[in-house]
Amino acid sequence: MIRILSCLLFASLTAAAATPPHIIFDTDIGNDIDDALALAMLHTMETRGECKLIGVTITKDNPNAAKFVDIVNTFYGRGSIPVGVVKNGKTPNDSAMLSVPVKHQPPYAATNNPPEEATALLLRLLKKEKNGSVIIVQVGFSTNLARLLDAPGAAALIKKKVKLISLMAGEFPAGKAEYNVKIDIPAAKKVFGEWPTPIVTSGYEIGRVVLYPGRAILEKFNYVESHPVAEAYKAYMKMPYDRPTWDLTAVLYAVRPNGGYFTLSEPGTVMVDGEGKTMLKADAKGRQRYLILDPAKRDSVRDVLVELSSAAPKK
Predict the structure, then answer these.
(1) For the chain, what is the domain count?
(2) Most CB atoms within 10 A, among 159, 198, 213, 234?
């Protein structure tokens, strides 16, 4: 009997350890092409059983952003994923990386699910998830998560449900004010200052040195006549060009934290100054760290990012 109980306990623990994280992808998609590649990565990793994408919230206040996300989700066979949009966001301007794919919708057209307001969607998603099961990948401004913190009862809900934020923001150990932070400095200050669970940040310095090769767009996405992510990449800048992988690195760490791609800084709290510059204040009890990339691993990390973002979806 003891042996049977031990086997059952081991099986239970193994199953729990194998449970893929449930991911909320919070993105300013449309401001840079790396968001689209990061979204493609999440779909590939879900197909391989490594995670489950339960929602996408957007901090770019342009209607084409939600339409493009819906097109990408539908392409990968997941058009039912709910999409949330920011209201009165910081960047309402349109972008060719959004408008071109949206205008030329391929045969796997978007499901046209009406997007929800982002804060309401975040609350709805978190309430139905198991405790400690959610990882939020934030690769845009902190607007949506700061507003979530302001919702009644949200801090306690976050503490129960969210395991981690894997966040692309800042520059470490010290550097210039990074775009995702300086566009909404008050929101960044609020999230770094008040978020009740761990945060791991992929800084500007990581993605800047791991360049996504433009040739991969031409060589690895041609398994279909019109790939929405490839079309967005081609529309974003004049081809061919290589682009930093800022947002992709945050996805990679979120889903594969033990993959050996990065090491972590000492713990502490990220401080944001009035100009949007970031610095980690060391504290052994702190819940925040930033990623560190060994230069010797740069090419291997790049290859993993390319492979995951370009893999064809299973039919």
Answers:
(1) 1
(2) 234
For 240-267, b/e burial (b = at least 16 CB within 10 A) is eeebbbbbbbbbbbbbbbeeebbeebee
Residues 122-178: pLDDT tens digits? 999 999 999 999 999 999 999 999 999 999 999 999 999 999 999 999 999 988 999
For a pLDDT cut of 90, what percent of the chain falls above it?
89
As a whole number of angstroms, the distance between CA 166 and CA 25 comes to 10
Q: Would you say residue 12 lies in a domain?
A: no
270 is in which domain, residue-wise?
Answer: 18-310
d(CA 183, CA 176): 13
CA 205 to CA 178: how far, in whole Å?
Answer: 10
In a domain, 8, yes or no: no
Distances (CA, A) of 255 to 110, 245, 314: 26, 16, 20
| CA neighbor of 207 nearest in space, from 233, 168, 257, 235 | 168
With 0-12 / 13-18 / 19 or more C-beta atoms within 10 angstroms meaning exposed / middle / buried, residue 32 is: buried
CATH code for position 140: 3.90.245.10
Is 38 a member of any domain?
A: yes
Return the pLDDT at 74: 94
HSE-up (13 A, CA, CB side) for residue 80: 1
Q: Which of 62, 70, 133, 120 shows the shortest CA–CA distance to 96?
A: 62
pLDDT class for 18, splitting at 50, 70, 90? low
Angstrom distance (rounded) from CA 191 to CA 200: 12
pLDDT at residue 12 tops 60: no
Which pLDDT tens digit goes with each residue over 96-113? 999 999 998 776 677 777
Residue 3 domain flag = no
- Name the packing angle between helices 228-236 and 96-103 (round to 10°): 140
pTM higher than the cut 0.90: yes
